[in-house]
Amino acid sequence: MKQVTHHFTSTLDSGKTGVSLFRFSVGLTAFFPLISLLGWIAHIEKLTSFANGFPATAPNTAIMLLCSIGSLIFQTEFRAQRHVKFAGRLLAIYTMAIAFTTLAEYAIGHAIHFPIVYHFKESPSPEAAGTMILAAGALLLASIQNGLCITLFQGLSLSIGAISEFFMIGYLTQSSVMFSKFTRISAVGISIPTMLSLLFLSFALLSSQPRQGFMALAFGKSAGGIVLRRLSWIAIALPCALVVFLRITRSLGLHDEAIEDAFAIMFTIIVFFLFTWSVAKKLEYLDSQRKSQESDLQKWKTIFENAGWGIVIAEVGKNTIGLMNPAYIRMHGYDRSEELFGRPIPEVFAPENRDELPSHIEKAYQFGHHTFESMHLRKDGSRFPVLIDISLIRDKSGLPTHRVINIRDITLEKRAEQKQKIRREFLESISLTLNESLDFEGTIQKIAQLSVMGFSDWCIIDILESSTSPSKNYAFHRDPNKKIQLENYRSLYPATPQTYLSAYLTIDGQKPNLVTDVDIQKLKRLAFSEGRIKAILDLGLQSYILCPLMVRNRRIGAISFMASEQNFEPSDAYFAQEIANRAALSIENARLFLEAKSATRAREDTLAIVTHDLRNPVASIKLNIDIFNRNTLPILDLSPEKMAKIEKQVLNIKRAASRAEQLISDLLDYTRIEKGNLRLVQKTENINDIFEELQATFSPIAQEHMIQLVVSTQDVNQVYCDRLRILQTLGNLVSNAIKFSAPGGIVEIRAKPLNQHQVLFSVKDYGHGMDTETIEHIFERYWQPEHTKSQGTGLGLSIVKGIVEAHGGKVCAESAVGKGSTFYFSLSMAVTAVSGLTLLPSSFQAKAPPASGNGISQQND
Q1: Which three-class secondary structure state does DSSP give residue 680?
Q2: Mapping DSSP to helix (H, G, I), strand (E, B) and coil, where does residue 479 land?
Q3: Element housing 859 (H / E)
Q4: What is the pLDDT of residues 809-829, one digit of tens each?
């Protein structure tokens, strides 16, 4: 690419060289006439002639030279400004007027009083006037850009240089006839400052147009330009150097005038040979560089022509299609580059994207590189998405010269993105749909239907009951007519590990199996009968994907996706496995839910039987104990010791029966709470009455365990609740507090306002306490700490939580090991009686659970 950039910027490099030479030559051209004018003003003769005895520069000659330089500057540096360029032409005309007036005066022998020409005592020499006419003619042609005018301009400029060279040789050889008597009109002659200024004026004129005609070759980097530059310097410098050399050698007495000609010829041959040898070496180097560049260029050409991306190279400033590679031509549906070359670049863009193109190009100029997506048009008018990359090629000065536009057809990528988007949405839809229900059969049916709607033509799902054989299979076909045919197929060929397609191929695998181009031979290799093969082909089978249904590295079945008219792709296999993974999880959840329902139903049946069958025997035991105590025990004639022993045994039997009755009651209560069938009869209750009844029930037990019960209320008297259920709740908490308190301990039972509408109850003990882990699980069913597992069923606190939450309250506990525990629960305050009606406070009504929908029965008195 470096060589390509070098090729594009070589012309600009030559222009840069021309500008440098132009400014240098302009400066020296203006320097000598300014020095001469200063000499005339200051009366310093050497400044006008540079040497005594030689002609001096006339004032009008200096003025003409300065006007020429001004004209050249105005027409080159300010060519975009018409009025300045016009002023430059006027200066050229003025210079020509002075020169013609001077020559006319020499011709007629007396002064001509021309209004615009000021006459000095010293007039310009005819040589200077004639040369300035050539310069003025060149300046009038300087801004006219056509082939003939450029040729005349450069010819006149070269003529000025040649004349100046002639005068220089005359001075070097001290041949006055060459610089003062050449025209034979006057013996004034041309001065050294004028000669040098004209020589540099010639350079300035030629370098003002470095990219035109002769100068384009002279400043170019081609072999011809190199030869021209080197030989031109020889032509200019060799005569002068030869003359100087001969003058020096003659003054040293190395030769006389007789051999000067032979010596000059020999010197010229040697110098010319050396320069020719130098040029030959340079050309040899350039030829090797050319071959290397051609080799590199061929490599780049091969890359350019075989690139997969379309490539276009357009010049900066031109918005047309330039050099392009075959990929770009094919991409747009054309056969030849001529059909696209030179066309405006926006034409290949879709109409709605054309207005955006300037902003993209501007970003490329701003950052040097820009990538964006757009839409292009083919020859037939069809559209296709493209990815466009714009880069800039800059010259050595940093100016952009060309735009390199890379275009890639991203149709396949866009299709893949759209496909991925559709599939992602499809998977989300499957997940949402499958989460709507936990019905086992319904879940499998939904999986089959969704798979057919969004992915395959027909689908079969096998559910394994064991690891060896599929026990159930489900099928669905997109075509309603073939759905009946598929059902007939399933009935004719029932699922077995050896014959059923999906089970046969996936029973030993955990990865999806993709099969394409299904034909009779492939089906025969599965050991299928001819009738079965025909039935499969009638259903339509071009390709299929078989995926295992895996849950926690355990296979629960397989799912088969069938395509009737097209082949699945490898990416489809991964998508199919994603569907299978979601399907497996949903099927497993539905199966677990079904098992949980069955287990719950079995447990409820067992509890119903147990509670029903045990309640009567336990009641009978208690009744017989009471009869024994009333009727039998008093008539026994036993010693006091034996009587005490029998009474203790009877008391133990009664306690065991009461314990069994309590367990049966707890089981029934928890079952009702879990099912939402706990019946509440709520009304306004006096808290003190509840506490008195509670204290009457548990005071004997507390005294037996040497525990002190402390009951108190604070600014609250009434509560809205089911009295019996709250007594049951407080009883469970107080019973636990007594059980886990040491002898001599205290159990505090308190009630106080929690807020404007709620009462906070608390039961506090100073026993062993609980750690944080125990508190986190304390209200879970059947959960007990290790050291208390033999002291109950683990349902008491679960029942407390259920009763409190059924009242619309909350329950919690706090404890610290060695400091005891406190259990809190909240209830609504009492309702207000208005006109005989019982009303709940509005805030409590909002919090209270509705009478219907949760299975809890509420009755207000």
Answers
A1: strand
A2: coil
A3: strand 857-860
A4: 999 999 988 889 999 999 998
